[in-house]
Specification:
The protein is 74% helix and 0% strand. The chain is mostly helical. It has 2 domains: 79 residues; 31 residues. It comes from Aureobasidium pullulans (Black yeast).
């Protein structure tokens, strides 16, 4: 074999191993628990770090997209006849200022807490722990007869 043929064979062998290493690294990047992990710890750490950074950036972009969608919907509603009729609803959907946002957030959090607490009570049966007929009988027994005041007692 000539020198160029040997160099060509070596180049193909190294490119195929590089391709296999790249495939293995991408598979590890996609699923760190995969059995085809890179052999070097430094490569594993780098790929894990890239995975976490990628996930963080993806969810941050999703969050900002949600904010943009809510803003666009708010602006679209405010520009219609519904927005002119229910102008106060815009403050609830998108409050102005830090204090307004904190107030609406606090109300939303309290409502969410109350709703979850009520749902938990209903699921556990605490909300409906008695029978209506038994309640009526207990009320009948609790009723006292009203006695008229005696004439010698002061009001």
């Amino acid at each position: 074999m000539s020198a160029t043929a040997v160099d060509h064979a070596a180049t193909q062998a190294s490119s195929s191993t590089s391709l296999e290493a790249a495939k293995r690294n991408l598979q590890f990047l996609y699923d760190p628990n995969s059995p085809n992990a890179p052999t070097r710890r430094r490569t594993q750490a780098l790929l894990r770090t890239l995975r976490y950074i990628g996930k963080f950036l993806f969810w941050r972009l999703v969050r900002y997209a949600k904010y943009a969608a809510v803003g666009a919907i708010t602006a679209a509603i405010a520009g219609t006849a519904i927005g002119s009729v229910a102008s106060g609803a815009a403050f609830v959907i998108a409050p102005t200022g830090i204090v307004g946002g904190a107030g609406v957030g606090l109300l939303w959090g309290l409502g969410k807490f109350g709703w979850r607490t009520l749902a938990r009570k209903v699921r556990s049966g605490e909300a409906h722990d008695s029978d209506a007929r038994a309640d009526e009988k207990a009320e009948e027994q609790k009723t006292e007869t009203i006695k008229p005041p005696k004439m010698d007692e002061p009001w």
